[in-house]
Design goal:
CATH topology of the domain at 68-169: Tetrahydropterin Synthase, Chain A
Mean pLDDT: 79
Helix content: 40-55%
Number of helices: 9
Strand content: 15-25%
Largest sheet: 3 strands, antiparallel
CATH superfamily of the domain at 68-169: Band 7 domain
Number of strands: 8
Shape: rod-shaped
Length: about 300
């Protein structure tokens, strides 16, 4: 009788140990899959909470269902317009099929990382530098489509989001872009200035047209200008000359193109012969005879 009790106690102990080893706890953010004799069961997915498995027969594999944020290391590449860049990104993904994520790939996190790196280099080679800098949404969408095509179907991993974090350019390219941006800003400034001058000229022309209707308004405007200049308390006061004053002097000056009227006849000077006759007689000097010089040879 005592031997039966001992055997029963041993059996009960093994049953308790087996029951303890056959109870598993699955967390809320996890799912469990059961392998029976190494084979994945058809309905093996176990939800969160307590679950029972057959000891020494079944094996429970837990899979994290949370979204994983994985950084993609910087990848060197050459864009389609032959610019060398370094691009890094971040990938957000999660498991949607725990059976495929465990059975079809050995380490799905490492596999997704490698796919993201190679896909990033491929996208860099197909895009231009301007697209990497200004059209990141387009690049992110293309990169996500490439990665998701290779991971969601075969591995049961869904790519939720892909973001390019940083694009590093060579120093020479940065200086060139800075000069280009400076030139563009200068061009815009000149266009805005020219547009402002054009609008101001139209307003001034309209104001001049209104002022020309009443001459007194020009004088009032002149006095207002003098008042504005005097308010600055300057030692020198500049008085602008009205245009009407110049027009007044222009009207008072005879026109050079008018024909000249006939003038009084001018008396001609008397002839030279008549003038010489009126002069008094002047005595002339006597003629001097030449003196003969003696000949030295005689």
């Amino acid at each position: 009788m005592s031997a039966l009790i001992i055997v029963f106690g041993i059996l009960l102990f093994f049953l308790l140990v087996a029951a303890a080893t056959g109870v598993r706890v699955v967390q809320q953010y996890e799912l469990g899959i059961v392998f029976r004799f190494g084979r994945l069961l058809a309905n093996s997915v176990r939800g969160p909470g307590l679950t029972l498995i057959i000891p020494l027969v079944d094996r429970l594999q837990k899979v994290n269902m949370q979204t994983i944020a994985m950084g993609v290391p910087s990848q060197d590449g050459i864009t389609s317009d032959n610019v060398t860049v370094q691009v890094n990104a971040v990938v957000y993904f999660r498991v949607i099929d725990p059976g495929k994520a465990i059975v079809n790939v050995q380490n799905y996190v490492y596999a997704v990382s490698q796919v993201a790196q190679t896909s990033l280099r491929s996208v860099i080679g197909k895009a231009e530098m301007q697209e990497l800098l200004s059209e990141r949404d387009k690049i992110n969408t293309a990169l996500r489509a490439i990665i998701e095509e290779m991971t969601e179907g075969p591995w049961g991993v869904r790519i939720e989001r892909v973001e390019i974090k940083d694009v590093s350019l060579p120093e020479g390219m940065k200086r060139s872009m800075a000069r280009q941006a400076e030139a563009e800003r200068e061009r815009r400034a000149r266009i805005i200035t020219a547009d402002g001058e054009y609008q101001a000229s139209k307003r001034l022309a309209a104001a001049a047209h209104e002022l020309s209707k009443d001459p007194a308004s020009l004088q009032l405007r002149l006095l207002q200008t003098v008042t504005d200049v005097a308010a600055e308390k300057n030692s020198t006061l500049i008085m602008p000359l009205p245009v009407e004053l110049l027009r007044f002097f222009d009207k008072m000056t005879p026109d050079q193109d008018e024909p000249v009227t006939a003038a009084a006849p001018v008396e001609e000077p008397p002839a030279l012969e008549a003038t010489m006759q009126d002069l008094p007689d002047v005595p002339t000097a006597p003629a001097v005879e030449p003196v003969a010089r003696p000949d030295k040879r005689g």
